[in-house]
Amino acid sequence: MKLTRQKHAKKNMGFYRHNFHFREPFQVLLDGTFCQAALRNKIQIREQLPGYLDGATQLCTTRCVLKELESLGKALYGAKLIAQRFQVRNCSHHKDPVSGSACLLSMIEEGNPHHFFIATQDQDLANKVKKKAGVPLLFIIQNTMVLDKPSPKSLAFVQKLQTNQLVPEHQKQSIVQLKEKEGLAKQESEKRRKRKRAGGPNPLSCLKKKKKKTQEGQEPSAEKKKRRKRKRNRVKAEALQSV
């Protein structure tokens, strides 16, 4: 069972590495529900997660998540202690903290540019994460951490990329530059063609044709002169014979 789970995780990680350019160390955003589930199931997140994802990880959370755990009191005191050990990523809610789920959603806006994983047991948050392409989802089930399979949104995004219907923002600039270079190349080739077309016929070929015409024009006149000469000689001969 453990080998099968590891095999699925490796396959899913390959999908995110290849199609969404995830690189080590993998940044995992955790909320209070995930920390509570790890505590209850005696899971050592920091020790076990790098082996499961087959790469170095950075466990992190936000101020909003810590504020939420603090407000819930003794019930989630252990989860708060776990979350406090993680790196705190800056969010946009410094003055007005929001719920942990709303904060994590704001961290993956605009195509998840920082390549965050989301680790949560909140089903409502998980469903919202699945509606965004390129966001890996982690949860705990049967005392083990599980990397969810790519969502239909992520699969559709990749399919569009493969059919050239959607181009990532970081590739648009390079495509424009290539088109400009190609346009310049076409203009240069058209100029060369025009230069070749502008040249007239070979003057040597023209001279040869003229010579042929003059020779052809001279041949009939020479034959006429010969005929006239023969005729004169014949007349002279006949005149001598009559004398």
Automatic annotation (TrEMBL):
Protein task: Involved in rRNA-processing and ribosome biogenesis.
Protein name, as recorded: rRNA-processing protein UTP23 homolog
Top-level lineage group: Eukaryota
Start and end residues of each UTP23 sensor motif region domain: 192-211
Matching Pfam families: Fcf1, UTP23_sensor
PANTHER family: RRNA-PROCESSING PROTEIN UTP23 HOMOLOG (PTHR12416)
Organism, as annotated: Accipiter nisus
Record family assignment: Belongs to the UTP23/FCF1 family. UTP23 subfamily.
Biased amino acid composition, Basic and acidic residues: 179-191
Bias (Basic residues): 224-234
